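Problem statement: downstream parser choked on a complex file, so we are re-checking the raw output for the fe (ii) ion run. The parser issue turned out to be on our end (a line-ending mismatch), but while we're here, posting the original submission so the record is complete.
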Amino acid sequence: MSISNADFVIAWKNVLEQCQLKPGEQVAILTSDDSNMQIVECARTAAGLLGGIITMINLPMINGDKALSRDKSGYVGQTTQLGVNTSALAALKAADLVVDTLQLLFSHEQEEILKSGTRMLLAVEPPETMLRMIPSPEAKNKVIAANRYMEPAKEMTVTSKAGTDFRCKLGQYPVLLQYGLADEPGRWDHWPSCMIARWPDEGSAEGLIVIDEGDILLPFKRYAADKIYLTIEKGFVTKIEGGWTAEYMKSFMDSFNDPDAYAMAHVGWGLENRANWTTLGLYDREAALSMDARCFAGNFLFSTGPNTEAGGSRDTPCHLDIPLRGCSLSLDGVPMTKDGVVVHD
Ligand SMILES: [Fe+2]
């Protein structure tokens, strides 16, 4: 079901207020030719109602001819002309708040903008999904509460009845807290989000991850048709075995011809009770990024590829996000999820 502009403007006003938007602040709304115009127009109206000084910045996309799909998470990091568009980059760095409907995530330019103190809120999911999972103080508190365990943790272990037996060390890279609000200087977030994650220490990820039938593969936006067995050694996926789904996944990763594509990236768990494992089956694949899949409560979300977002140097455009059901995740032996259910306070 679609939503009305009136409801969406009210939601945007709420979210921008939670992002600490104050009258007189500079708001840049970043668009491209494929931006969702309901998001753009309702964000612009709400920012105006709150007294923001608005600048619209439209950038052409590039690399469409290199990516294997139109999905913005299927080829990340180097997809805009911002690297050579110095005037647009200067404007974004000068803004107090950027609403990103284009998806700069994983780009060097995003890191540069954030370092200048600009707050950035990514907004690319379908408006009705954003409204269903509107950020709230309660959702933020859940993520902050999870971080009481994540921040001091030295080791993550994950097991499942399907056969997953994974472990990694933690501490080298910062925690990724996503609750859908860019509410502090230099903070990036994505509306909708409610999850916590961290990158394993370099070379420490080891074990076996079993993607079970029905688990979700992103950016393919498909449920796995059969089991995939991933062997992880010294921080890299070294074997991808199984049936045709495994063959498909391996073939996609191989197509980038980049060893960094096989690195383990962020690992964590979803905390959003309003997100649904089933939603992916109800949308056309090009209609959404599927934050439902990334955030549903109790998932074990692991990923492969880049770590620039965490301050690392791997900037491969190949990034897979894979949320598993039914896993038990512990930090330093303390259970965070048990059989796919959040159990920490
Ligand atoms: Fe990811």
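For whoever reads this later: Residues 266, 303, 319, 321 surround fe (ii) ion (CB under 6 Å).
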